[in-house]
Amino acid sequence: MASVSHGPVGYSSERPQWAEFLRIPEMWGSLGIVTIWLAVLFDAVYGPSFVSTSGGSLGSSTTIPSAVFVAFFAFLATAALAKYAFRRDEHS
Questions:
Q1: Which of 47, 51, 48 has the alpha carbon at shortest distance from 60?
Q2: Burial of 58 (C-beta count, 10 Å sphere; 0-12/13-18/19+)
Q3: Residue 16: its pLDDT value, please?
Q4: Residues 49-66: pLDDT tens digits?
Q5: Is residue 92 pLDDT above 80, yes or no?
Q6: What's this model's pTM, rounded to 2 decimal places?
């Protein structure tokens, strides 16, 4: 009677290890986008406004929240980050 010896049984965890999560580009892309928009939120709540006054003390003034401009650049950053982080390699 012949028997075959096997190598040591490897440990197979049911859940992936924490270090494996660090290699997921979608996670980092999502975290980056959330951070960008949290910066817009905090600028909207605590940030200053751009004020333009014309005509001296009796003239008109215009007030624009700075979050409007920050949100524009956050949109551009979100688009660029999403394009990079969520791309699909065609060779995979």
A1: 51
A2: exposed
A3: 64
A4: 998 888 877 788 889 999
A5: no
A6: 0.70
